[in-house]
Specification:
Elements: H1 3-18, H2 69-74, E1 79-80, E2 86-87, E3 96-98, E4 101-103, H3 121-127, E5 140-141, E6 147-148, E7 170-172, E8 178-181, E9 190-193, E10 205-209, E11 215-219, E12 226-228, H4 233-243, E13 245-253, E14 256-260, E15 282-287, E16 291-298, E17 303-311, E18 318-328, E19 335-346, H5 354-359, H6 361-364, E20 368-372, E21 381-385, E22 401-408, E23 418-419, H7 422-426, H8 436-439, H9 443-448, E24 458-469, E25 474-484, H10 489-497, H11 502-518, E26 523-524, H12 528-545, E27 547-551, H13 556-559, E28 570-574, E29 601-602, H14 603-609, H15 613-616, H16 623-630, E30 641-648, H17 652-663, H18 670-681, H19 687-696, H20 705-715, E31 717-723, H21 737-747, H22 752-758, E32 761-762, E33 768-770, E34 777-781, E35 788-792, E36 796-798, H23 800-807, E37 810-811, E38 816-817, E39 825-826, E40 833-834, H24 836-848, E41 858-859, E42 880-881, H25 882-902, E43 906-909, H26 910-928, H27 944-963, E44 967-968, E45 972-975, H28 977-1001, E46 1018-1032, E47 1038-1049, H29 1055-1062, H30 1066-1077, E48 1082-1083, E49 1088-1089, H31 1104-1107, ...
Parallel strand pairs: 39-44, 57-61
Antiparallel strand pairs: 1-2, 3-4, 5-6, 7-8, 8-15, 9-10, 10-11, 11-12, 13-14, 13-19, 15-16, 16-17, 17-18, 18-25, 19-24, 20-21, 21-22, 22-25, 23-24, 26-56, 27-28, 29-30, 30-31, 32-40, 33-36, 34-35, 37-38, 41-42, 42-46, 43-45, 46-47, 48-49, 50-51, 51-52, 53-54, 55-58, 56-57, 59-60, 59-61
Helix pairs in contact: 1-11, 11-12, 12-14, 12-35, 16-21, 17-18, 24-25, 25-28, 25-29, 26-27, 29-30, 29-32, 32-33, 32-35
């Protein structure tokens, strides 16, 4: 199979895998075929073609931002099938011959020149149809060349108001792209392309800013492998315009000659600096879901320059694509020009370079070199180092390199020569401010002179010499920047990319890949801004948590089942990564440049961002819940990061069978067959690694990739993977498990018993150990050196015994640990397992035993705080957190409900049973002490009775951990229903008493008298009396045993009240909401909520939160993730009026003032600068782009808005599974302004549409034209795929239909009438 067919096949596979993994959602058939030779293209720099037809200035054919010509033609279309569904049709190219190969239409296809692809109709309506948007289809050019806002519509703000006139400055074009006029004169922001190249593509990372030509850095895999060096945002804002992409035009019209650099910072239209007699260029940035485009209109020289960037999708090589279009706006005179277009500073390949470039860049240049795939031409440069820059005995020769291929799009696409010698362009201007070398020479002279690329940093400019652009026409230069493992691959890549129509097709596919992903939350309300925002939020959620795809579909039976029902089915999450970017410069992101690309993610992020996976794709079943419960360690903690699952096939004969089916029986492929079998059998692998190994060993499949992956997955065992880091264990990681339980039960309430009691899950085994108090309570000088205090330091350490256990499972052949190394064993060597209900019970017991000395918060005893990681000093202050206490309350309540409902005992490890007995004995002892608390006067010094209870329980917890440090005994003990219910109820009483005590102690801060009635979030405990143990830590500080403690208080933080709302009644939640609005957490000027109240007067000991300026980062800013958690609790508790008021009054996107927000109002930031910040011009601006946990909260809101809290439930009388949709949607999402005020005539139907389970079209018909707040429908009409329609009277869908809907494959659509 040739590469073009494989590329088309990838499109089909992507569509299938990303559309609920059901057979009816397959994507387009392959559009490409090729039977040409593999000859290297002939390079002629004097043979240039350009578009000569009448092209609208700014047309998309020219890569333009403001036009519609070709991209409109290339946009996706759908045609109705006979059964009412929509089927995508494979796109094709007109027959063209270039460099010895041709592209043909599949049989029966007409040569229309259009690319036809598959997306959903409503996405088409939302994104491509200008009339359906609130914003203009394009920006009109006035006679003076200015952008006119004559077609700008005011965006509705929830249907109850409008944005201000400033909306004309921030718009969306007809493709749903965010429009920022005069982008380089606006306050700075950074963003990124998602790095998604499809399932069968090799992604690259790229970041951009609103300066220069946008792109600030890009590369492969991580910032250690840059093509353009990674820089943090503050430096990127300074350097992008000079060190990034540049364009230099030497032009002439008649006798008038000029030299021009589009997007030069010297010609930015800063407010107040414009000269009306010599107007500066108009610049616009367009931010798309998977592309970024910039446009400049030069009125003086009558030239429009447009640049589009996107990551190449669905190819077996990775590339970052740049399209530069020069349009001659003059209607009479032709434009003669020569130009250089490309990257001012390019880095070579040579191992991990990021730190070396910054620390020893000059020395590093000695390794640099520029090579050519064909030495006689300068069109295929290869930028690499001679060897990796190490000082080791083993020298690694560098074969990998970075390439640049550029050509002019047109009838005949010839590779352009590349100028890589920086001195030829910039001369002695080492700051690269001016192209001195070019200005004192010419493009032709540079091309005719030798270039030097060794022992220096190079440039990478495509060169075009002396061509003519007719009046009203344009020319487009396409450039591919990428990485490949051998220089001889470059000509092969060149033959692909220069094919006629290739670039346009790939740009179209890059958009559709995102549309296929976001179809999961396809939403069609009257407010298109909200609809687009929902898709953006789902996309960004997917980048943190991954998109789950089902592998192992080998027959019709498997396609009918979920991953719980069929052991052949495996869940694999693609596209996830740690959220590192220009503003999160502290994170080391990883985007694997492989098929099925994925990267590790922070445990907290992944656990939250996969919360709604089962709602959007029921076929995954309880997979996520089981995986995360498996990550609970014996000590009650969880690892730091989650990695992609791995596959193993232990049976050699199975591997042989797969290899034979995949490669063939023939003797000629025996070596390939044996190699593939070895790969499958040698150890753990991931799909991307599997394809990479096959590529390296030249294994060619006789089946398509999709079939092969399903075959392998069906036969393989799957193992979750995670990593624990010695820095410590986060206190909040376990608090997201009940959320996973609740979302699972909203879809599978009938499977609760089988999940909780019948499954057996292992315990994660990390090499780390939490130290007991006697090893981590350290006596040291207090802040300022005025005295001594006790701190909790170095609480987590690598344990040698645990390391030795893991080493027994190391595979020297593969360099990997066997998956068994990740799981705790018993004394007989078997992986020890417990039921999920036992896991939750033991977890609750450990956390109950980790409550602080006052019984209020959960101790931060493992070197890390909870969700707010900027409170890093709190662990050292022997701190504790109430958020974890409220989650403990929810966990205990859930375990109690399960035991009560099913009346079955809990079987736990005997070690845990001993801990539970000790806890209950300590509670008995506390009761015997007859401790009575005076609610009128809670002492700050902890009463001795509570201290003794805490000491006894802490000792029991430490003994339990000591007994399970390397293994369990394997012995289990049954806890009866009566015993379990009694102790769980007792624990609930104790936790609730601690909560009451925390409210009495309260908070304390600037302007906070502690009487707000809101839950505190944090406490610290100062050891006022201690005993020296006689031992010291590694730094020589004495270790102590505490004898007495005193509680310390903090200002209010939003997390405490938010988590309390999760365990509260509707009335209690409303009271908390009202109190928050009256507290220091309310930013009235912004109508938002801050992460904390004022921290004025607090100690720096609490952590870096105090080090930040007020209003910035975690110090009293608006942290959107926690704000969105707050809003989620409003709708979850049925406070609909309050929820929608907060949404539409500017507290939530997309209803914020866009010019104030400062970036796309479709994308969440991590934080917004609050009114506490000293500079008022910054108030309300968003920082730290996207990938915020707010996306997970938004999807939970979306689910409650459109499905309701419990779409599937069990009939109390019959025990049958039923379904009921109970949306929480306001009328303004149904009804437009015209209908609202229409007194006479027929009103349009008030309806809302969305996708259920990423597949079933659901329409709500609001015939009563009222708010639907928790209302069940009056009736349903359920359309099946066989064309039949089943009416259902009343608000409940009966069991047989409910099951069909949940299985997805039977049902086409649902109409619900209210």
């Amino acid at each position: 199979m040739n590469s073009y067919q494989q590329g088309s096949q990838a499109s089909s596979s992507d569509a299938t895998l990303l559309a609920n993994n059901t057979s009816r959602n397959s994507g387009a058939n392959g559009p490409w075929s090729s039977n040409g030779s593999d000859s290297t293209p002939v390079i002629r720099s004097d043979h240039i073609t350009c578009h000569t037809g009448p092209v609208q200035p700014g047309s998309t054919d020219a890569g333009a931002a403001t036009g519609q010509a070709r991209d409109t033609m290339e946009s996706s279309i759908r045609r109705p099938a006979a059964n009412g569904r929509h089927i995508g049709n494979g796109g094709s190219f007109p027959e063209k011959r270039a460099h010895g190969f041709s592209h043909r239409y599949p049989p029966g296809k007409k040569k229309t020149g259009l690319v036809v692809v598959t997306i959903s109709a409503s996405v088409l309506a939302l994104i491509l149809c200008a009339k359906s948007l609130l914003f203009p289809s394009h920006l009109e050019k006035s006679p003076e060349g200015e952008v006119s806002d004559s077609k700008v519509h005011s965006a509705q703000k929830g249907g109850v108001g409008k944005f201000s006139g400033k909306m004309s400055q921030l718009l969306f074009d007809d493709q749903g792209r965010y429009v920022l006029e005069d982008f380089d004169a606006k306050p700075t922001f950074s963003d990124f392309l998602p790095g998604v190249a499809g399932i069968y593509g090799k992604p690259m990372w790229s970041f951009y800013v609103n300066r220069g030509q946008g792109i600030a850095s890009f590369g492969s895999k991580s910032k250690d492998y840059p093509i353009m060096e990674f820089s943090p945002a503050n430096k990127a804002y300074q350097n992008t315009a000079t060190l990034g992409f540049r364009t230099f035009i030497d032009g002439r019209r008649g006798s008038h000659s000029f030299f021009l650099e589009p997007f030069a910072s010297s010609r930015t239209r800063y407010e107040g600096l414009q000269d009306e007699t010599h107007p500066l260029p108009k610049r616009v940035m367009f931010v798309g879901a998977n592309e970024m485009q910039i446009s400049e209109t030069d009125f003086q020289e009558r030239i429009e320059t447009n640049v589009t960037y996107f990551v190449l999708p669905e190819e077996d090589f990775g590339a970052f694509v740049r399209r530069t279009t020069i349009t001659n706006l003059d209607k009479e005179q032709a434009l003669h020009l020569s130009l250089l277009d490309g990257l001012a500073k390019i880095e070579p390949a040579g191992g991990k370079l990021d730190a070396l470039l910054k620390d020893m860049g000059r020395t590093l240049e000695g390794f640099f070199g520029v090579y050519q795939a064909h030495e006689d031409v300068k069109t295929m440069p290869f930028f690499r180092m001679s060897t990796e820059p190490t000082d080791a005995a083993a020298v690694k020769v560098q074969n990998e390199g970075h390439y640049l291929l550029s050509f002019i799009e047109g009838e005949d696409s010839w590779l352009l020569p590349i100028v890589f010698d920086t001195k030829k362009v910039f001369g002695e201007d080492t700051m690269m401010l001016h192209p001195v070398g070019l200005q004192t020479s010419s493009v032709r002279s540079i091309l005719n002179s030798p270039q030097y690329g060794f022992a220096k940093t190079s440039s990478a400019f495509a060169a075009v010499d002396n061509f003519v652009v007719p009046p009203g026409s344009s020319v487009t230069i396409a450039s591919f920047y990428g990485k490949t493992d051998d220089i001889m691959n470059v000509p092969v890549i060149a033959r692909k990319v220069v094919a006629s129509g290739f670039v346009q097709y790939k740009l179209s596919r890059s958009r559709e890949v995102i549309q296929q992903i976001t179809a999961g939350v396809e939403t069609n309300t009257i407010n298109d801004l909200f609809n687009l925002h929902a898709q953006q939020m789902y996309m960004d959620n997917s980048l943190r948590g991954g998109v789950p795809v089902i592998l192992g579909d080998t027959d019709d039976d498997s396609m009918m089942n979920n991953a719980d029902e069929d052991e052949r089915l495996k869940v694999f999450s693609v596209f996830s990564r740690v959220h590192g970017d220009l503003e999160r410069d502290y994170n080391d992101f990883l985007i694997e440049p492989t098929f099925y690309s994925e990267g590790p993610g922070n445990f907290r992020d992944v656990a939250q961002n996969r919360r709604n996976d089962v709602i959007l794709n029921p076929r995954i079943g309880g997979w996520n819940l089981k995986v995360f419960l498996s990550f609970i360690q014996a000590d009650g903690y969880q690892p730091s990061s989650v990695e992609a699952v791995v596959f193993t096939i232990a049976d050699k004969s199975t591997c042989d069978d797969i290899a034979t089916q995949s490669v063939g029986h023939a003797d000629g492929v025996r070596a390939q067959r044996e190699a593939l079998s070895r790969i499958l059998n040698d150890g753990p692998f991931r799909p991307g690694q599997l394809f990479l190994l096959m590529e390296q060993q030249h294994i060619e499949l006789i089946v398509n990739r999709h079939t092969f992956v399903h075959m392998v997955a069906a036969a393989a065992e799957i193992s979750p993977m995670a990593v624990a880091k010695v820095q410590g264990f986060w206190a909040d990681h376990w608090t997201y498990f009940i959320d996973l339980v609740e979302t699972y039960l909203s879809i599978y309430p009938d499977k609760e018993h089988s999940l909780m009691y019948d499954e057996r899950l292992p315990y994660f085994f990390s090499p780390l150990r939490v130290r007991p108090r006697c090893e981590k309570y350290v006596l040291s000088l207090s802040y300022g050196g005025g005295g001594k205090h006790v701190r909790q330091l170095e609480a987590v350490v690598k344990d040698g015994a645990k390391e030795r256990v893991r080493l027994a499972y190391f595979n020297n052949k593969t360099g990997w640990y066997d998956p068994a190394a990740n799981w705790q064993h018993d004394s007989s060597g078997k992986v020890f397992m417990s039921s999920p209900i036992a896991r939750l019970f033991v977890l609750a017991a450990i956390k109950f035993a980790t409550r602080d000395v006052y019984g209020m918060g959960i101790e931060y005893e493992a070197n890390k705080p909870g969700w707010n990681d900027a409170m890093n000093g709190l662990a050292g202050m022997i701190g504790s957190g109430m958020p974890e206490t409220f989650e403990l309350l929810n966990c205990i309540r859930y375990v109690l409900s399960v035991v009560t409902k099913f009346q079955e005992p809990i079987v736990v490890p005997v070690e845990a049973a001993t801990l539970v007995d000790s806890i209950n004995d300590a509670l008995d002892e506390l009761a015997m002490r007859s401790y009575v608390e005076n609610p009128e006067q809670i002492p700050y010094t902890v009463p001795d009775e509570l201290f003794q209870y805490w000491d006894a329980v802490s000792n029991a917890r430490e003994r339990y951990r000591s007994s399970t440090v390397t293994h369990f005994s394997g012995v289990e003990k049954e806890i009866s229903v009566t015993q379990a219910v009694t102790m769980l109820e007792r624990w609930i009483d104790q936790v609730e008493s601690g909560v009451s005590r925390s409210l009495l102690i309260g908070s304390q801060g600037d302007g906070d008298n502690g009487l707000s009635g809101l839950s505190p979030t944090y406490f610290s405990f100062n050891v006022t009396k201690w005993t020296l143990t006689g031992k010291k830590n590694k730094d020589g500080h004495p270790l102590v045993a505490p004898n007495q403690m005193k509680v310390g208080k903090f200002p209010l933080f939003l997390e405490g009240p938010v988590r309390m709302m999760k365990s509260s009644s509707r009335e209690e939640a409303y009271n908390i909401y009202e109190r928050v609005r009256k507290s220091g957490l309310w930013d009235g000027a912004l109508n938002m909520y801050t992460i904390s109240a004022s921290l004025k007067g607090q100690s720096y000991d609490m952590g870096r939160v105090k080090a930040f300026a007020p209003g910035w980062l975690e110090n009293q800013s608006v942290w959107l993730h926690m704000s969105y958690k707050f809003y989620l609790e409003l709708i979850r508790n049925g406070l609909y009026e309050q929820f929608y008021t907060e949404m539409t009054s500017g507290g939530m996107l997309p209803f914020m003032e866009p010019e104030v927000y400062g970036r796309s109002i479709l994308e969440c930031s991590s934080f917004i600068v609050s009114s506490a910040f000293s500079d008022p011009s910054m108030h309300g601006r968003g920082f730290v782009a996207r990938l915020s946990g707010s996306t997970a909260e938004f999807l939970s809101m979306w689910s409650l808005m459109f499905l309701g809290p419990q779409p599937f439930f069990i009939d109390d009388k019959e025990g049958a599974l039923l379904m009921q949709l109970k949306p929480a949607l306001p009328l303004w999402l149904f009804e437009n302004e015209k209908d609202k005020h229409r007194a006479f005539g027929k009103k349009s139907e008030a309806s809302v549409k969305f996708k259920l389970f990423s597949s079933i079209d659901v329409t709500y018909h609001n015939t009563a034209r009222k708010d639907l707040f928790g209302n069940a429908p009056l009736r349903y009409e359920i359309g099946l795929l066989d064309g039949s329609v089943i009416p259902v009277e009343g608000g409940v869908v009966p069991s047989d239909l409910a099951i069909k809907i949940r299985r997805v494959v039977f049902v086409d659509c649902i109409d619900a009438y209210f």
